Amino acid sequence: MAFDRQMFSDKLKRFMSALQTTTLDLAENTGIPENRIQSLIKREHNPTGSEVLIISDFFHEDFNFFISNEQFATFERVEDFFKKNNFLLTKEDRWHIKEFLFLCECESFLQDELGQNQRRSVFEFSKQDGNHYKQHGVAAASAVRAYLGCEPNEIRLDVFSDFMSMGIHIFRRNLGKSAISGFYIKHPSAGKCVLVNNSEDAFRQRFIVAHEVGHAILDDEANFNISLEAVNRSSDEEMELREKRANSFASNYLAPSGYISFIPENRTWTEEKIIKYSLSLKINPEPFAYALNREGLISENDVTHFKALRIPSAEKRDPELPDDSDSLDYKRKAAVLEKGLSPYYVSLCLEAYGKDLISRGRLTEMLLADEYSLVTIANLFMKTV
């Protein structure tokens, strides 16, 4: 069957449009001459096999997408998302999201290959109480804490691992000055995926991931949700209610009623006590103030006052990183988080490579690495590649 130049050209143009990529960008990053790319777009020539593979690798997409009539649901979903948020997303945002989805696909593939999905129990939750949105959040948080075996007054420190153990793919990426704080998407094959802006402070990230997981659990019918700092949601009542529900989940998960009722003299609140217990819970004063108001312990006026309190950044250590910044474990985790990966994901990649389930080239691609950084990452994890 003759190669379909029109189909290849259309798909290439769609990818370039979605990711705001020019022919010059593509040429500089693939080594394919710009005039050659332009000729492929104009349907003047068939691409070579190498060109298809190089272009596919650049876009982190299966090469079959470009050479078959198959419509990949993943791209369709993210393309729809980009169109709906066209004026809110920068070019860098789009690439971060596309790369994040690639990592989620890889993680799901590795879990299947290593038999981890078969060993993982499934968390299920059904919303009750009609349209009582905040109560949905309370009930879901209680169900998740019970699923994880939490004590009523227990503080969960490694919330990223908590939610990953429920089968949710979670990655943190430094998005710089992006308006995105968090992003949830229901991937057609990988399942529920959450992206957290790693440029936010460590306490804020804990709330963001819990908020987005709230969407993953409670808005399962939605294909995606994005949390943008600059968006005014008041014009969309349903969206506003869903945001409040996700906040309710995050608040009740991170600052449960059982912990707050355990605090001595919990009806007398000062700025010093707000800071003290915010630090204990590893959350900022604002969500803690709202949690106290939720429990009827402080007034709305108190919330307005206390939420303005600030904890110095130096005191907001990432709970996932060891205290000793000179330790191998700290360097290992800090290095992979900086690349937008996770220690768990890197361990999966290296285990699969060690068992000959993936090639060295595939390992390099999955770790978003070059030869030098591949060896560096492997050394941090005491592995040889």
**Number of discrete domains:** 4
Q: Which stretches are poorly predicted, pLDDT < 50 over at least 5 residues?
A: none
Percent in strands? 5-15%
Instruction: Please tally the helical runs, counting DSSP H or I stretches of 4 or more residues.
Output: 20
Amino- and carboxy-terminal Cα gap: 41 Å
Question: Can you summarize the main beta sheet?
Answer: 4 strands, mixed
Radius of gyration, whole Å: 23 Å
What do we call the CATH topology of the largest domain? Arc Repressor Mutant, subunit A
Which structural class do the helices and strands define? alpha+beta
H/E element order: HHHHHHHHHHEEEHEHHHHHHHHH
Roughly what percent helix?
A: 55-70%
Shape: globular
Report on this structure.
The protein has 20 helices and 4 strands. With 385 residues, it is of the alpha+beta class. The protein has 4 domains: 67 residues, lambda repressor-like DNA-binding domains (434 Repressor (Amino-terminal Domain)); 175 residues, Arc Repressor Mutant, subunit A (Orthogonal Bundle), CATH 1.10.10.2910; 64 residues, no CATH class; 53 residues, no CATH class. A 4-stranded mixed β-sheet has the order 1-3-2-4, sandwiched between helices. Helix 2 packs across helix 3. It is globular. The protein starts with a helix and ends in a 5-residue tail after the last helix.
